[in-house]
Amino acid sequence: TDPSVNNDTSAIQDTAGNDAASIPLTNLPTDDNHSTIDSTAPILQSVEVNPAGQLVFHYNETLDGNNPPNANDFSITVNGQVVVPIAITITGNDVLLSFIPAIGIGQSVSYGYTDPSTNNDTSA
């Protein structure tokens, strides 16, 4: 139902600003529901240190950029020393871990990640 009687931006509108007609409550037949649930976990494809000295985890699908993992979910060593990322960002299929100082050319890096929960949730 249009919340107002005028043609305004509080309703579904066409590009000319005309409100769409109200639709009474209607049940959608279950055979018309073609939505799908993504139940497949992202798969790690590769890991590298980029030119900015960040550790980059490349996955096979787009990741949730609004809920990055916590720094303590990772085990990272650089030249045998434990390091903790100062920032974790997600861009597309990639998880980027930033460090101070940045990882340098030729440094040895070891990495691990542990999902902190057993459920598919925003903590992972």
TrEMBL record:
<dbReference type="InterPro" id="IPR028059">
    <property type="entry name" value="SWM_rpt"/>
</dbReference>
<feature type="compositionally biased region" description="Polar residues">
    <location>
        <begin position="1"/>
        <end position="16"/>
    </location>
</feature>
<feature type="region of interest" description="Disordered">
    <location>
        <begin position="1"/>
        <end position="38"/>
    </location>
</feature>
<feature type="compositionally biased region" description="Polar residues">
    <location>
        <begin position="24"/>
        <end position="38"/>
    </location>
</feature>
<protein>
    <submittedName>
        <fullName>Uncharacterized protein</fullName>
    </submittedName>
</protein>
<dbReference type="Pfam" id="PF13753">
    <property type="entry name" value="SWM_repeat"/>
</dbReference>
